[in-house]
Amino acid sequence: MTDKTRILIVDDDPIVAESLGEYLRREGYTPATACDGGEALNMLEAANRGAGANSDGRFGLVIADMNMPRCDGIELLKKVRKQFSSVAVIIITGFGKIESAVESIKLGAVEYLTKPIVDDELKIAVGKAMQQHALLAENQTLRSQLSERFGIDNIIGSDHRMQKVYDLIEAVAPSRTTVLIDGDSGTGKSMVAHAIHTRSDRSAAQFVTFSCGAIPETLLESELFGHVKGAFTGAETGKVGKISSADGGTLFIDEINSATPALQLKLLRVLQEKQFEPVGSNQTVYVDVRFVLATNQSLQELVDRNEFREDLFYRINVVNIHLPSLSQRLGDLQILADHFIEKYCHEMNKTVTGYTKEVLAALHRHSWPGNVRELENAMERAVVLTRHPVIEMDDLPDSLQSTSARKISVSTQTIAAENWTPMPLAQAMEEPERQILLSALEANGWNRQETARQLSINRTTLYKKIKQYRLDEPA
Known about the structure:
By secondary structure, this protein is an alpha/beta fold. The chain has four domains: 6-148, 3-Layer(aba) Sandwich (Rossmann fold); 160-324, P-loop containing nucleotide triphosphate hydrolases (Rossmann fold); 327-404, Helicase, Ruva Protein, domain 3; 417-468, Arc Repressor Mutant, subunit A. The protein is built from 20 helices and 16 strands. It has helices spanning 14-26, 37-51, 73-83, 98-106, 119-150, 160-172, 189-198, 220-225, 242-245, 261-273, 299-304, 310-316, 333-348, 357-365, 371-385, 398-404, 425-428, 430-443, 448-455, 459-468; strands spanning 6-10, 30-34, 61-65, 88-93, 111-114, 179-182, 207-211, 226-227, 239-240, 250-254, 275-276, 285-286, 290-295, 319-322, 354-355, 390-391. Strand 3 (61-65), helix 3 and strand 4 (88-93) form a beta-alpha-beta unit. The two termini are 44 Å apart.
């Protein structure tokens, strides 16, 4: 017995429930019955607990009556979609209304049937529901596998660059080595820092964050090192700094590229000697802190321009973790979008099953200057605003909608008569054609199907052209 064959029938009329059960049993399924939504939820939970790691004993489909005491069909549907995401639901009712049918379908029901139930209609609906259940269960399994294989905590991605990041996190976390994380804003540097902390032997202690770019220059040293009473005008009481707060744990210093020369000098001493003096104090404080730092600019370039201390750079650049921009790992875009949709659906108690092909194409065409953070914000907005079962183009921010309308343009050069080299026209057209193909592929994130559609050629022709011009997709 597997969850592909188990069906839970929920109806407060025992005659209807037994009748449906008898029919489904003849069709090869294993039915069970519940008299209302409350009992149904208890049975679903018990089946999941009893099944453990195996699917045996779990239900794959719930057939629920619309009108029931305690918990009606719509309420049951909402709870099933939230708590048992791989279970399909069919709603039945003796009082068919267009409004209730539309509502149930929007909430994720596979089908809406009116009594008396026609056997052939039920058979088709159950077959359709079982197909959806199989897809939902497969998606759930794939998400779980992706999380285990490609994610560390909430860091998501299967790109080979991200695999290197995961390996570095696992390797450096148990040590006390200083780590420098570099990457554009929005790539997830703070999440990587937190992952390093949680995998270290300091995970039970504090993880403290400090952003050099978010604090006025006059307060940087006070915030980081703390100060004593009367250290400066307005210092009516003493204050413990971020470094002392992180004693025994990890201090994450973001935007270290924004640190002032004076702060850089003090940081160098703390990193080398693990000691410092609070602002306005002569008393030396000793700390046991693991430092993780991040920058959104190249520190080597700042050093070359004498804008960052060279000795501090070499002191913090012990282990370097580079986070690629989202545009460099577009293969992760769909995984990330799915993750954020699921996250915000759970937070907002909404049901959104995905997005249209047009939305996916628009996501691939966008340049993502704000990286993963921009994608997360876009998906959160879409989940909040959408009134559809799936996210559509009008749910996206204006920046993504305008991207979708962008045309592919290729610059051409006018060949002067004196520069003309005699050659067949077909040969002369090769380089412009190659440039057009390359621009189209890059604009669509190397999505060949969408590229072929935009160029009004079939995919086979596109593949031949890619091979002919030796166009290699970035690794």
